[in-house]
């Protein structure tokens, strides 16, 4: 996965554990991007990370509820520190 149109790019995606957020994380990773995924579903997020990494990609799991601003601020800071910055953000989290 390191080669592709997004090779070397870093993205933060909310809602990465399922649905459109998961699909977006998988697509960007397949195209070479490093992903920081935020979701409150720890198990779902871990499954997506395992799938991305098994395919040779890079994904960081950050557990947070997007309705909790301080938790999101901590997660974003962790993503920036771990990935060395961000080129894009996708706010994809939904409500169930």
Can you walk through the features of this model?
The protein is globular. With 96 residues, the protein is of the alpha/beta class. It is 42% helix and 22% strand. It has one domain: Rossmann fold, CATH 3.40.50.720. It has a 4-stranded parallel sheet with strand order 3-2-1-4, with helices on both faces. α2 links the parallel β2 (34-39) and β3. It has helices at residues 19-30, 42-54, 69-83; strands spanning 10-14, 34-39, 58-63, 88-91.
What percent of residues are in strands? Answer: 15-25%
Give the CA-based shape. Answer: globular
CATH topology: Rossmann fold
Instruction: Provide the number of structural domains.
Output: 1
CATH architecture: 3-Layer(aba) Sandwich
Number of H/I helices: 3
Gyration radius from CA atoms, angstroms: 12 Å
Q: Which superfamily, in CATH terms, is the homologous superfamily? A: NAD(P)-binding Rossmann-like Domain
Helix % is 40-55%
Q: Largest sheet, order of strands side by side?
A: 3-2-1-4
Counting copies of identical and different chains, the oligomeric state is single chain
Structural class: alpha/beta
Report the end-to-end length measured between terminal Cα atoms.
32 Å
The total of beta strands comes to: 4
Secondary-structure blueprint of this entry?
Layout: E1 10-14, H1 19-30, E2 34-39, H2 42-54, E3 58-63, H3 69-83, E4 88-91
Parallel strand pairs: 1-2, 1-4, 2-3
Compact summary:
By secondary structure, the protein is α/β, with parallel strands linked by helices. It has helices spanning 19-30, 42-54, 69-83, and strands spanning 10-14, 34-39, 58-63, 88-91.
